Amino acid sequence: MTEESDRPRRVTATEAARRLIAEIRQDHPDILFHQSGGCCDGSSPMCYPADDFKVGERDVKLGEVDGVPVYISASQFEAWKHTQLILDVVPGRGGMFSLDNGREQRFLTRGRVFGADELAALEG
C-alpha cells in the first residue's frame, strides 16, 4: 500500500500564489479556497475567510497549500480527478467575493494531467 506522503498532491501552488496567500493571511489569518465551478466568476479559485464560507457536505477537500485547505464540489471533482490543480497568480481583479479582489492580481487554476503511475498511487 502506498504511504500518504508518497501520493501525488491533488493541489499545489506556484511561488507567486504562495506569496499572495501569505499577503492575504496578514489580513485574514484563517482562509480557505473553493474551486468555483462556473457562474459569476467563471472557474476561478475563490479565496474566503474560513468562517465566512460554509463547506458543503458534498465538497471534496483536495488538500492544503501552506496550511490553507482547498475544496472543490463533488461534480467538479469528478471532472478533474485525473488532474493536479495548480494555484497560480496573474494580473487582474479577483472574483467579486474572493479575498484576492482589489490586489491587482488574482488567483488562477492551471491543470496538469496525472501520469498512469500517479493515478495508480491516488487510487491505491
Summed up:
This protein is α/β, with parallel strands linked by helices and 124 residues long. Helix content is 23%, strand content 34%.
Please specify the SSE layout and strand pairing.
Blueprint: E1 11-13, H1 15-27, E2 31-35, E3 45-49, E4 60-65, E5 68-72, H2 74-80, E6 83-91, E7 105-113, H3 116-123
Parallel strand pairs: 1-6, 2-5
Antiparallel strand pairs: 2-3, 4-5, 6-7
Q: Estimate the global geometry from the Cα principal axes.
A: globular
**Rg estimate, integer Å:** 14 Å
CATH class placement: Mainly Beta
Could you say which structural class the secondary elements and strand pairing correspond to? alpha/beta
Taking strands numbered 1, 2, ... along the chain, how are they ordered across the largest sheet? Answer: 3-2-5-4
Largest sheet: 4 strands, mixed
The total number of structural domains is 1
CATH architecture tag? Sandwich
Q: What separation lies between the terminal Cα atoms?
A: 7 Å
What name is given to the CATH topology? Hypothetical Protein Aq_1857, Chain: A
Q: Count of helical segments?
A: 3
Mean pLDDT: 89
Salient structural properties:
single chain, four-stranded mixed beta sheet, 23% helix, Hypothetical Protein Aq_1857, Chain: A, alpha/beta, 7 strands, 124 residues, three-stranded mixed beta sheet
